[in-house]
Amino acid sequence: MQKLVVLGAGESGCGAAILGKKKGFEVFVSDKGTISKKSKDVLLHNNIPFEEEKHTEQQILSANLVIKSPGIPDTIPLIQAIEQKGIPIIDELDFASRYYQKPIIAITGSNGKTTTTLLTSHVFNKADKRVIIAGNVGQSFAKQVASEIDGDLAVIEISSFQLDRIETFKPHIAILLNITPDHLDRYNDDFELYAASKMRITKNQTKEDYLIYDADDEILTNWLKDHPVQSTLLPFSLVKKIENGAYLDKKNITITINNNQIIMPTSSLTLEGNHNIKNAMAASTVAHLLKIRKQTIRESLENFQGVEHRLEQVLKINKVQYINDSKATNVNATYYALESMDAPTVWIVGGVD
User: Fold this and answer.
1) Sheet containing 173-176: which strands, arranged edge to edge?
2) How far apart, in Å, are the Cα atoms of 275 and each of 120, 332, 338, 347?
3) pLDDT tens digits, 289-347
4) Alpha carbon distance 324, 314 (integer Å)
5) Cβ-based neighbour number of residue 36 at 10 Å
6) pLDDT tens-digit profile of 37-70?
């Protein structure tokens, strides 16, 4: 029996442990910190051995496979010891995808991931599709796969930290919204390393798969020129006419895939700002690609309520709009917020619990 060691006992770690046990691995979970009662209850219920507040190297270095929490840096001595011994280290999403046979839509970018993930899921739910939502939102992908909740497709929000350990993960449709400087402390303050991590979303794609990306993002377009991918490209743009993909024509979103075209007015969007027009383009391109009816797409864009704490319109008093944007995480997120405001606004920013 092969031994699987899971480092980190959070949502993704527990999910990976459950799936590993179901697939016949001898599983051991190790967490350098204190494990929450919720996670302990899950591990105990599934008879999965674990340790907390330490990493026992003898246990860990006897593994055939290690699944690492994305939050654990690659630079710590334990990770280096595992690599020196030649033990593969992967991410929970990579592990779970090996046992999932339905289409995967993976969404990454420095900004807009959560909105686009939930908007894409919303469109498919409105089309009566059963959608797994996973990654940085929703439940652990591995846990849902272990529970045999296969759905019709999976929509996964994926960070650069998760992409760092991708080996076999292969989304049928990848969405790359943008690349701006973020989390550079994780990448030795080297923006090129961070961009390369984001581009790993295409690592295993073939010409039968698709990459939907922002053609207005110079970093993205230059990277794709210098590092061609196998994926079929479907760009979107606010300023360029796109033959195969999506673009803004006056106040209409035009999406063309293999000469099949749909046109939708931006006036139907409940979300404000050019960045949200792009998020809508990305989600709508996925829906059009997978043959969701135009009317369903339009209705979904009209009634999607957005993401809590992200440009969330709280109330309006005396013609002043109050907006909760407390989950804005970087400078570009701030820019997107400001460009969407065209009336007197109280803008609420800062951390949330």
Assistant:
1) 131-135, 153-157, 104-108, 173-176, 210-214, 232-237, 245-249, 252-257, 260-265
2) 15, 10, 11, 17
3) 999 999 999 999 999 987 654 554 545 565 555 555 555 554 444 444 444 445 565 65
4) 6
5) 15
6) 999 999 999 999 999 999 999 999 999 999 999 8
